[in-house]
């Protein structure tokens, strides 16, 4: 059966993020998904995009252990699919690209998202979550965070919680720094630890060739390495990263050449330090005619901006032939965030 998207303006009567939540003084009504009416949804499928960090400025470590960052998120048309089905308990299964590298238990961020939503709505966590991977695992493109965002939307609709996108965004911010962007997509300025988002006007479509590695770099490892490089004065320190105004102008203009001039990633030296072969990948992309190349987020995926779609395909082919990466993909952006598939 078909399904409608989660209503962004759904009315929420209390802070439970759930229309099933009790009114003050009333007992909690725990509704079992298995016991709802035949008219209820039996499954919800959500498509959620990967992200590229067009810009990532990293500041000092905060008191809470996170780094203060300023970043420009850019959603691209490389997507995972997350299907949530009615079930007697909570489970996660994963298929697709590099599925064997993704946990299928409570370590999975999609599992955590579903469990958190159920807890806040005072519902039993009853969903079988099936993830089909296309976003690189551990590749700096927020694949796990994207799956968590999709799980929030899928379970909110499956369980009929009535949660708005804004309220799901609050949960997303608690789950991880990149999860909230999975809900919104497009292009956005991220501040704080990345969870505070402001939409960025972007004109036109940008074309990308992606070089994927056969290993991963955890975000925690990349930030630790950046701290080490800064402590040893091997790279410059930044106390408070600034908003990249010239990049915002480039995005508003839709000029890919201008955008290329202002792309930057403070984590790139750390990623290259942890995986030195990434420098050869970047060199191969530039030699193939990319306007610029950058390590995406914590890496190791490298993103190359191309002037056109055919040029992106040529760059990807040259990267594949160079032997400097495991595989390549071409994609475009920006695209919308997590959406229910009809």
How would you describe this structure to a colleague?
- The protein is an alpha+beta fold.
- The protein has two domains: 33-199, Ribosomal Protein S5, domain 2 (2-Layer Sandwich), CATH 3.30.230.10; 206-333, Alpha-Beta Plaits (2-Layer Sandwich), CATH 3.30.70.890.
- It has helices spanning 109-120, 143-158, 165-175, 179-184, 219-231, 245-253, 256-262, 268-274, 278-287, 309-322, and strands at 43-61, 67-85, 90-96, 127-133, 187-191, 196-199, 206-212, 264-265, 292-295, 302-306, 327-333, 339-340.
- Strands 1, 2, 3, 4, 5, 6, 8 and 12 form an eight-stranded mixed sheet that branches. It has a four-stranded antiparallel sheet with strand order 9-10-7-11, with helices on both faces.
- A hairpin with a 5-residue loop joins strand 1 and strand 2.
- It is globular and about 55 Å long.
- Mean pLDDT is 88; it is low at 1-16 and 21-39.
Second-tier CATH architecture of the largest domain: 2-Layer Sandwich
In one word, what is the shape? Answer: globular
- H/E element sequence: EEEHEHHHEEEHHHEHHEEHEE
Q: Look at the helices and sheets and give the structural class.
A: alpha+beta
Q: Helix fraction?
A: 25-40%
